[in-house]
């Protein structure tokens, strides 16, 4: 029997771990300087928790912004919970790391995009560094956003056999 090294899943775990470490630091010490995050996630993920009116308004995915006001950030092994302001209405959210589609910090032109691969028997994801301009669409939190510059895209497909 032969086995392969599953680089795609290893990268998946590493990038989710990076997001976890960043959020742990922010939970402990707050957002430094101009750092802020645009996080797009799958609102239909079975472990995602959000108000019914938000899931009705954003049935596929939603982009939230952690910038000027957020509360109760708690980071776990599987995801994080945070309360964000949606037009003067604070709402708690729980976002599993597996539900995250993009994670962007436009202040330093850093972004990760987790693309779903539609296949017969696989749920593989491709992880690429995303251009900030692609994921800085109208955020669901209604907070003001800055004009972002694109970052370099890195595709893992060239490393797969």
Mean residue pLDDT: 78
Distance, first to last CA: 18 Å
Rg, rounded, reads 16 Å
**Proportion of residues in β-strands:** 25-35%
Spans of at least 5 consecutive residues with low confidence = 119-154
Order of strands, main sheet, comes to 2-1-6-7-8
Helix content: 10-25%
Structural category is alpha+beta
CA-based shape? globular
Total helical segments: 3
Describe the sheet with the most strands: 5 strands, antiparallel
Q: Encode the helix/strand succession as letters.
A: HEHEEEEEEEH
Q: Give the strand tally.
A: 8
Task: Give a short overview.
The protein has helices at 7-29, 52-57, 132-135; strands at 37-42, 61-66, 70-75, 79-85, 90-96, 100-105, 110-116, 125-128. With 161 residues, it is an alpha+beta fold. The longest helix is centred in the N-terminal third of the chain and has 23 residues, at 7-29.
């Amino acid at each position: 029997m032969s086995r392969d090294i599953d680089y795609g899943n290893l990268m998946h775990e590493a990038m989710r771990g990076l997001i976890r470490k960043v959020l742990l630091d922010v939970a402990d010490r707050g957002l430094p300087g101009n750092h802020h995050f645009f996080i797009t996630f799958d609102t239909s993920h079975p472990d995602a928790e959000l108000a019914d009116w938000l899931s009705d308004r954003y049935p596929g995915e939603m982009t939230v912004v952690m910038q000027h006001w957020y509360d109760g950030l708690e980071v776990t092994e599987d995801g994080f919970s945070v309360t964000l302001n949606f037009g003067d209405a604070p709402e708690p959210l729980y976002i599993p790391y597996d539900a995250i589609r993009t994670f962007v910090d436009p202040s330093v032109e850093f972004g990760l995009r987790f693309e779903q691969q539609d296949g017969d028997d696989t749920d593989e994801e491709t992880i690429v560094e995303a251009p900030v301009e692609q994921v800085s669409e109208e955020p669901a939190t209604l907070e003001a956003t800055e004009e972002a510059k694109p970052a370099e895209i890195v595709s893992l497909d060239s490393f797969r056999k």
